[in-house]
Write a structure and sequence with these properties.
The complex is a heterotrimer of chains A (784), B (270) and C (161). Chain A is built from 20 helices and 28 strands. Chain A has 784 residues and is α+β, with helices and mostly antiparallel strands. Chain A folds into 3 domains: 194 residues, Aldehyde Oxidoreductase, domain 3 (Alpha-Beta Complex), CATH 3.90.1170.50; 321 residues, Aldehyde Oxidoreductase, domain 4 (2-Layer Sandwich); 146 residues, Aldehyde oxidase/xanthine dehydrogenase, molybdopterin binding domain (Aldehyde Oxidoreductase, domain 4). In chain A, the strands form 7 sheets. In chain A, strands 3-5-1-12-9-10-11 form a 7-stranded mixed sheet, sandwiched between helices. In chain A, helix 15 runs parallel beside helix 16 and helix 16 packs across helix 17. Chain A is globular and about 90 Å long. The relative contact order of chain A is 0.12. The model of chain A has no long low-confidence stretch (mean pLDDT 97). Chain B is built from 12 helices and 14 strands. In chain B, the strands form 4 sheets. Chain B has a 5-stranded antiparallel sheet with strand order 4-5-10-6-7. In chain B, strands 11-12-13-14 form a 4-stranded antiparallel sheet, with helices on both faces. Chain B is globular. Chain C has 2 domains: 76 residues, Beta-grasp domain (Ubiquitin-like (UB roll)); 69 residues, Orthogonal Bundle (DNA polymerase, domain 1). In chain C, strands 2-1-5-3-4 form a 5-stranded mixed sheet, with helices on both faces. The longest helix of chain C is centred in the last third of the chain and has 15 residues. Chain C is built from 5 helices and 5 strands, in the order E-E-H-E-E-E-H-H-H-H. Classes of the chains: A alpha+beta (784), B alpha+beta (270), C alpha+beta (161). At the A-C interface, helix 1 and helix 18 of A face helix 2, helix 3, helix 4 and helix 5 of C.
Chain lengths: 784, 270, 161
């Protein structure tokens, strides 16, 4: 590793603009003639729309247009789609209800958009939006997924009888039932995975601009994947053909999954721009974000885990109901199926697994991928069950896990995944050592003397990143491929631009991708620029989610660099009259090994563009492209240990220590990796102790619609973290990278709840384990 | 926000005069509650009269045990005032833990008590300290000033100019923050002062009552016997008339009243 | 009806015509074209819009622009140690990886400046308490806290804010 190459802890190139306030986010954009939009949204969770009267609103000061769903439909704008086909176990395709970008006849959740107002100022647009008179006939709403499945529940979509989207299964049910019937011990749990609101601090925003002269649209949007946005808006929503639509995702203030999806607002802003002839900008306010960003999690699960007399797991049976909200968001169907049930083997050798998943409509915000997407839910089910089993069996939680670890690789699980590499015991040992696990009982005694209840819990997670290869995900129902593209342009003066289909919204790609190039071509980091987030600049790419940018996006850069390097060596060999095989790249120069012959980079680059003296038949230029499709998923894994102290008087949980030992394969920049892990853990601790999205069960109103009611992790809620990494390189990509973006959010919730339940001796606690819940549990325990 | 007229008052008299002109006039102190309420359209005044530049509303005077805090004094100023810290550190401590630094540097004691948010901190202090609220027209005992949720004895156009109290021998404040909003979910101010030459223990609770701040007779009785944290142990506070919401049930709040009272007393004695 | 308001922003006296209901945040971002100050919630709960007004940190979304008549405002754009040289706190945020998506960063840097002016020698828990009004969704705060403590350490070695 050089000082700037792979593995170096270099400061981030993008930070100079971020720390000086020079970052450019969608809300910072100003286009000449730009006007402002506000949406008219349903105040009801479920209602028929009888009439929309826009007259009063149209007459308000500054109003340019008030547009409704009828006009949108009239112009041929299509419904939103879910891009991953799942078939129920009876073979029928999933039941997708229609989702119009502006509701026409029916609204299905609080916040469902029914009209857009375009006005001179944002304030005028909002005032006019309030003046749009919508006549609703309120219907009964249902927010709880189990209740939505019950007979007589309010029906959301005619396409989905009984609100059931699909009833899907994976694994061998008969083998599992047989194993449970003959088990020495069965651990059973009812598990709730609480609904979360992603809460990127930059609210979603869209700026649509139709250029009449060019008959061309530009959309600036808060997207993690601008090319996918363009594809979907063109192919399915009829906004414009791809060659007439440019999508730009500039600096984006956090995504966590919620900015993968194409939402109604960007479609409507583009359409409204053509209708009104002015550029139209919309920026969500925070309550709009709470109401309309796709939420995460929201599973209810029954789990049974069977053991033989030696405490080896013989089977796992899982029955999950997944709340999808009012509409099927873009990748919603994949989250509780292929991103969830396929991870239910965890780090363990489990001979038989069966999972059944029912996806259900309710009158709530759509639910889709949120940091971890399915894998946190799987890990929570498994690691809560393992901890509970250890308690029931009277064995140490570490030893029960260790006994059941997969130790031989490759390992084929009963639920599709083939693990390629890992050393689970190494992470467990590292975490236990860092946490001084052995010293816990002394610490517990000391805490008891202070009147505190101390508990410890662990979680051994595995996850799958960089979903691939495309052919395999296609066979599972994905509507897209999951490769990535890269273009490396060596300029005539030797500086380098890398154009990537990945998108950075906090991950630091402008630094890590440049580190790879600096290492490979032996050039200074400052001479490398990373270009991303603009469909007019960058060829088709798939974007950033699922911790894929390192493993897939950087691998594409790696492949393009292979081609650049090969061509540069050919040119250098030709110019220096040497054998191509003898050319080495060192210190910014191409050298003939064993001689003092050398050419600086820029000279080779320049030669490629002057083309005065190239090898016979060689095309001029030094610019190469690669599309990289990995051969397998990557499998990051690790062990997290959480230690808590609980104040029995108030129910307050303090995390006194949090240890993470992760195996991410090779690491490009340790500072950035640590930051990703910290952020993930903070979101996991948020889920475990603080965050819970709540709807009123009768009215379907969102109760937690602001930071006054939805508890965000703040600086004084969190401890400092002890993080470390080990490395078993990933064999399925050229860089040996596994991905680190979601691990923290996946591994931490069960560690926290295992610690809290250990401290209070009540295993039924649900997330978030708020002071109220912990206090209530302790009080009930003293009554018994 | 709807359109609005803004006036910057130069004195209390000027503010009162300006207030007579508009249809729906609101005084703007720190704006920490009023501005968000205007954004969400819960409040839509025609005229705002900014009290932020009135010199006579600012500052803290301490004379012996007598404390006067100008209504326009920010929480940060209350927290940092050395003279106040010397005679009544409990009030300094309370102010130092209101909201976050941005709120503490803009929000004022006058704005806070005039708004009388049921989860605000100052009302508990004023009630327990038997403080007097001074307005441009009269003086009102704290017990008469806080009349209900977001309601006070203030009449239209009346302005709080100062808060006055006698520093007690001992006082302490402890709150349990709402995990999300960080307002007091239950806050208890205990004070041991003198009334008619006798010891007088007063305990006020904020953040918990359905009708805003109130005195806890149960805790007062226990602490009157002995002003010691241990004396509060095991006291039963009824949950009737306590608020219940997603963050805390009435029973939980009742338990927190006891715990916070215990901790506030320990602070008072430290 | 717009009103003419003058204030000193980052050392420069400016005069702007603004409607009275417009917040300082919107005035800075729109009329002032200083977009470094961010809008995360617009109701004073997230701290992304923190600026320093007359020496004290405020949520600029909770201050009317017109209230700032005659005031001195410091925003992220005004923070630097010299032409093209980052300010001490900015430098430490870069060194320690205190920024990820960058959206909460300007507000946290301004709050840090206010903290270190009041307390140049904060403990970790004092730092955490001081920035508790600033929500960061990316970092888990660990590297932000490292950066603030590192800036404080340099401050004690004689560097200036």
């Amino acid at each position: 590793m050089g000082v700037e190459g792979i593995g170096a802890r270099v400061a981030r190139k993008e930070d100079r603009r971020f720390v000086t306030g020079a970052g450019r986010y969608v809300d910072d954009m100003v286009v000449p003639g730009m006007k402002h939009a506000a949406f008219v949204r349903s105040p009801y969770a479920h209602a028929d729309v009888k009439k929309i009267d826009v007259k009063a609103a149209e007459a308000m000061p500054g109003v340019i247009a008030v547009l409704t769903g009828k006009q949108l439909k009239g112009d041929g704008i299509g419904n939103l789609i879910c891009g991953w086909m799942i078939h129920s176990k009876d073979g029928t395709p999933m039941k997708m209800g229609a989702w119009s970008p502006l509701a026409v006849d029916r609204v299905r959740y609080v916040g469902d958009a029914v009209a857009i107002v375009v006005a001179e100022t944002k304030g005028q647009a909002r005032d006019a939006a309030e003046a749009v008179e919508v006549t609703y006939r309120e219907k009964k709403a249902v927010v709880d997924p189990a209740r939505a499945l019950a007979k007589g529940a309010p029906q959301l979509h005619p396409e989905a009888e009984g609100n059931l989207i699909y009833d899907w299964e994976i694994g061998d049910g008969k083998a599992v039932d047989a194993a449970i019937a003959s088990a020495a011990h069965v651990t059973r749990l009812h598990i709730v995975n609480n609904r979360l609101v992603p809460n990127a601090i930059e609210p979603r925003a869209a700026l649509g601009h139709y250029d009449k002269a060019e008959d061309h649209f530009t959309c600036w949007t808060t997207s993690q994947n601008p090319h996918v946005a363009r594809l979907v808006m063109s192919a399915f929503y009829n906004v414009a053909p791809e060659n007439k639509l440019r999508v730009i995702a500039p600096d984006v203030g956090g995504g966590f999954g919620s900015k993968i999806f194409i939402y109604p607002e960007e479609i409507v802003c583009l359409w409204a721009s053509k209708r009104t002839g002015v550029p139209v900008k919309w920026v969500a306010d925070r309550t709009e974000s709470f109401m309309t960003d796709a939420h995460g999690r929201d599973h209810v699960t029954e789990v049974e885990m069977a053991f033989d007399k030696d405490n080896r797991i013989t089977a796992l049976k899982v029955d999950t109901i997944a709340n999808f909200g009012a509409y099927m968001s873009l990748f919603s169907s994949s989250v509780p199926t292929y991103l969830y049930a396929t991870l239910l083997s965890g780090q363990y050798n489990i001979p038989a697994i069966h999972a059944n998943v029912r996806a259900v409509y309710t009158n709530t915000s759509p639910v889709d991928a949120y940091r971890g997407a399915g894998r946190p839910e799987a890990t929570y089910v498994l690691e809560r069950t393992m901890e509970t089993a250890a308690r029931e069996l009277g064995v140490s939680p570490a030893e029960l896990r260790r006994k059941n670890f997969v130790t031989q690789f490759p390992h084929q699980t009963p639920v599709i995944m083939a693990y390629d590499a890992g050393d689970y015991a190494a992470s467990l040992d590292a975490a236990m050592k860092a946490a001084d696990y052995a010293g816990f009982s002394e610490r517990k005694k000391a805490a008891a003397k202070k009147g505190k209840l101390r508990g410890i819990g662990m979680s051994c997670y595995i996850e799958a990143c960089g979903i691939a290869p495309s052919a395999a995900v296609g066979s599972l129902g994905a509507g897209v491929g999951l490769w990535e593209s890269a273009e490396v342009r060596v300029n005539a003066v030797g500086t380098i631009e890398v154009l990537t289909g990945s998108h950075s919204h906090g991950q630091g790609h402008e630094t890590t991708f440049a580190q790879l190039v600096a290492q490979r071509l032996s050039v200074p980091l400052d001479t490398v620029s990373i270009v991303h987030g603009d469909t007019d600049k960058v060829q088709m790419g798939m974007g950033t989610y699922g911790s894929r940018s390192g493993a897939v996006g950087m691998s594409a850069v790696f492949k393009a660099l292979d081609k650049v390097e090969a061509k540069a060596k050919k040119i250098a060999a030709h110019l220096m009259e040497a054998d191509e095989a003898d050319i080495v790249i060192e210190n910014g120069e191409l050298k003939v090994a064993g001689t003092d012959k050398k050419l600086p980079w820029f000279q080779v680059a320049l030669a490629s563009y002057t083309a005065h003296n190239l090898p016979a038949g060689m095309e001029p230029g030094l610019k190469e492209t690669a599309f990289y499709d990995p051969s397998n998923f990557t499998f990051p894994a690790g062990c997290y240990i959480c230690e808590v102290e609980i104040d029995p008087d108030t129910g307050v949980t303090e995390i006194v220590q949090f240890v993470a030992a992760d195996d991410f394969g090779n690491i490009i920049n340790p500072m950035i990796v640590e930051g990703q892990v910290h952020g993930g853990i903070a979101q996991g601790i948020g889920q475990a102790l603080l965050e819970g999205c709540r709807y009123d069960p009768a009215s379907g109103q969102l109760v937690t619609a602001s930071y006054m009611d939805y508890t965000m992790p703040r600086a004084d809620d969190l401890p400092s973290f002890k993080v470390s990494t080990s490395n078993t390189p990933c064999p399925s990509n050229p860089l040996g990278i596994k991905g680190c973006g979601e691990a923290g959010a996946i591994g931490s919730p069960p560690a926290v709840i295992n610690a809290v339940t250990d401290a209070i001796g009540d295993n039924d606690l649900t997330m978030p384990a708020t002071p109220l819940k912990v206090w209530t549990a302790l009080k009930a325990a003293t009554r018994h | 926000m709807y359109s609005l007229n803004y006036h910057r008052a130069s004195s209390v008299a000027d503010a009162v005069k300006l207030a007579k002109k508009g249809d729906d006039v609101k005084y703007l102190a720190g704006g920490m509650t009023l501005i968000p309420a205007m954004k969400t359209r819960l409040s839509a005044p025609s005229d705002l009269i900014d009290l932020g530049h009135i010199g006579e509303l600012k500052g803290i005077k301490v004379s012996g045990k007598n404390v006067t805090i100008g209504a326009g004094t920010t929480h940060a100023e209350v927290a940092a005032n050395e003279k106040l810290k010397a005679v009544c550190p409990a009030v300094s401590d309370l102010a130092a833990h209101i909201g976050d630094p941005a709120v503490r540097h803009k929000g004022t004691i006058g704005g806070s008590i005039a708004n009388n948010d049921p989860a605000a901190d100052y009302p508990a202090a004023l009630l327990a300290l038997d403080a007097t609220v001074v307005t441009n027209k009269r003086e009102i005992a704290a017990a008469k000033f806080f009349t209900g949720l977001f309601e006070t004895a203030l009449k239209d156009g009346e302005i709080v100019t100062a808060v006055r109290f006698t520093a007690p021998a001992k006082a302490g404040y402890e709150k349990f923050r709402n995990p999300a909003s960080r307002y007091a979910m239950t806050g208890v101010f205990v004070a041991k002062g003198k009334a008619n030459g006798k010891d007088d223990v007063r305990v006020a609770v904020t953040g918990a009552g359905e009708n805003g701040v109130f005195r806890s007779k149960e805790i007062e009785a226990a602490l009157s016997k002995k002003f010691d944290a241990a004396a509060v142990e095991g006291v039963k506070v009824p949950s009737k008339n306590l608020m219940s919401d997603i963050h805390a049930s009435a029973d939980y709040r009742a338990a927190l009243v006891v715990v916070m009272a215990k901790r506030a007393t320990a602070k008072a004695n430290s | 009806m717009k009103r003419l308001v003058s204030m000193t922003v980052n050392g420069e006296e400016i005069e702007l015509a603004i409607p009275p209901y417009r917040t300082l945040l919107d005035v800075l971002r729109n009329e002032g074209r200083l977009t470094g100050t961010k809008k995360g919630c617009d109701v004073g709960d997230c701290g992304a819009c923190t600026v320093i007004m007359d020496g004290s940190p405020v949520n600029s979304c909770l201050v009317l622009g017109i209230e700032a008549e005659g005031a001195t405002i410091e925003t992220i754009e005004g923070q630097h140690a010299g032409p093209d040289l980052p300010h001490l706190i900015q430098e430490k945020f870069m060194d320690h990886g205190g920024a990820q998506c960058g959206f909460c960063t300007p507000g946290i840097i301004m709050m840090t400046k206010a903290l270190l002016k009041e307390n140049p020698n904060p403990t970790e828990s004092e730092v955490r308490f001081a920035i508790a009004g600033n929500i960061c969704r990316c970092t888990g705060y660990a590297k932000i806290v490292d950066a603030v403590l590192a800036a404080a350490e340099d401050l004690r070695k004689g560097r200036t804010l």
